[in-house]
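Exercise: predict the fold of this chain.
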Amino acid sequence: MTAVRARLSRPARRLFSAALAVPLLALAACGYGSDSEDDGADDAPSSSESAEGPSLSADEVTIGYFANITHAPAVIGLQEGDGLIRQELGGTEIGTQIFNAGPSAIEALNAGEVDVTFIGPNPAINGWAQSGGESLRIVAGAASGGASLVVNPETVSSIDDLAGARIATPQLGNTQDVALLNYLSEEGYEVDPESGEGDVSVLRIANSEIPAAFDGGDIDGAWVPEPTAANLVSRGAETLLDEGELWENGQYVVTHVIAAQGFLEEHPDVVEAIVRGLVRTNAWIGENPEEAKTSFNAALAELPGGSELPADVLDPAFDHVEFLNDPLASTLQVGAENAVNAGLLEETDLSGIYDLSILNGVLAEEGQPEVDDAGLGVED
């Protein structure tokens, strides 16, 4: 199947602008990192700095990302001075915008406020569907994995114990919410997708409030991304299910890179520089994992309102995420199908959402194999 549909069903239509977004994933939402607790309402203002060397076809480019672990390639690669993405852009002025949630990143892309952004799978589907396939292309991967169902072992010790349990997700209709609803359905539990009521109570709680809800006994667990999962484990939770267990080879897209279609058409050399810097950054992270964690934490502290993560959260959370260039296109398709099955989406054609030509060109230069678009690539 090479096409799925992603327009909202009538009951969920009013939720789409914020619901089908990547989970907030911001470290602030876990009590660490950025101190904002508003899911996307108080995104950090743009900052800009020129690197050394001649500019490319665009005098400036604005890049969006989240201040969290699954966006570590951006956090590390855009560091002032030695960030490899920054180096590849030469003299082109670089603006950055830090987002707390996917919907605001898509809005900024559509408004021309950012040209390229690191983002999760569901907001990319959202942006594609709402624009009729006119707003964006996915040009590279960035990260896989990093989500788990973690529970209070005193109340939930097995999948069978989920009956009657209260399980939190960061946002109605977000990536983890869809994953949980789909998983519960496959396990035979019936849950109304909009209200969250049913055999299992699915509670949509802001990431910033999930640890307190866990500590207060208001929830029995949560299906959450890193570092929220590691944060809860540090508070006594146990991992009941690593989401990677549900995917082939344990891999599924959690962060990829999208570019505004107009910017991609007018400035392919700039997008290529960003992609090349990303490939170099991911290679460096893979070769220097401990140094990468230190670099990430230091860069995090330099961001507006940022602070470093404690080791008992940083280490397991960072190790739970795989940084890779492949956007894992087939998993985007499955994720969209899961959203349809969960009752939060109707179907729409995703053909053309990918343009991996630049990425594959860079990979060829690096002697690495091409990656596949699962039949969802733009036609030549």
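Check your answer against the key: The first strand starts at residue 47 and ends at 50.
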